[in-house]
Design a protein that fits this description.
Layout (H helix, E strand, L loop, with lengths): L1 H28 L12 H25 L13 H25 L9 H6 L18 H16 L3 H29 L1 H9 L10
């Protein structure tokens, strides 16, 4: 029952955070907001790794439904209090992602399009309002919260692995995007990065 509810929630999360947002941005700028990585570089490698992370999350959600005895949960974490905290974290995570995407507007992307973003620089502006005054990556904070909430509600080896791998990949992806934005906007983004922490709990150079 919990796995089924989490699967439904995850599909809603995916629909709101990716499908709907990509549609809204495309309608406003006339171009796809989802850019497939084609270069032989770090960003392409990270994109493939994130695909593997998605597979881990799917396994953590689907295997308890398809083969209940195959993926044993961590019994010491199967307590109502952890599930309650996890559920709260999941709701906060989705709210954070949707709000941050709304504040980002047409600057939101999945992937880095070096050529087109230079040609349409106004559509990839440095966003400094709302949540972006507190963190350079509030959307990634929401995604991290989703992984934490998933693990607390459905503690198994795949959800734990997804949490650990996701943490590392989000750290790397954030830095790749910051390098791209610095290349695109120069001193404007350097000033923003100097004034606003990468996440929200400590300031980073």
């Amino acid at each position: 029952m919990i796995a089924l509810a989490l699967l439904a929630y995850s599909l809603v999360f995916l629909g709101l955070a990716v499908v709907l947002r990509a549609y809204l941005v495309k309608r406003r700028i006339g171009a796809s907001a989802i850019v497939l990585a084609t270069r032989d570089d770090v960003h392409t490698y990270l994109s493939r790794c994130i695909g593997g992370l998605t597979a881990l999350v799917a396994g953590a959600l689907v295997l308890p439904l398809a083969a209940p005895g195959l993926l044993s949960p961590f019994a010491w974490l199967e307590r109502p209090i952890f599930r309650l905290v996890g559920a709260v974290v999941l709701v906060v995570a989705l709210t954070l992602v949707v709000l941050a995407q709304s504040q980002m507007g047409t600057s939101w992307r999945i992937g880095l399009d070096h050529q087109n973003d230079r040609a349409q620089q106004e559509n990839r502006a440095v966003v400094e309002r709302g949540l972006y005054r507190l963190s350079r990556h509030p959307i990634y904070l929401g995604v991290h919260g989703y992984l934490v909430g998933l693990f607390l509600c459905l503690p198994n080896v795949l959800s734990l692995l997804a949490l650990v791998v996701g943490h590392v990949l989000l750290q790397l992806q954030a830095r790749v995007e910051e390098a791209f934005m610095t290349e695109l906007h120069g001193d404007e983004y350097r000033r923003y990065a100097r004034d606003v922490p990468r996440w929200c709990w400590r300031r980073c150079p």
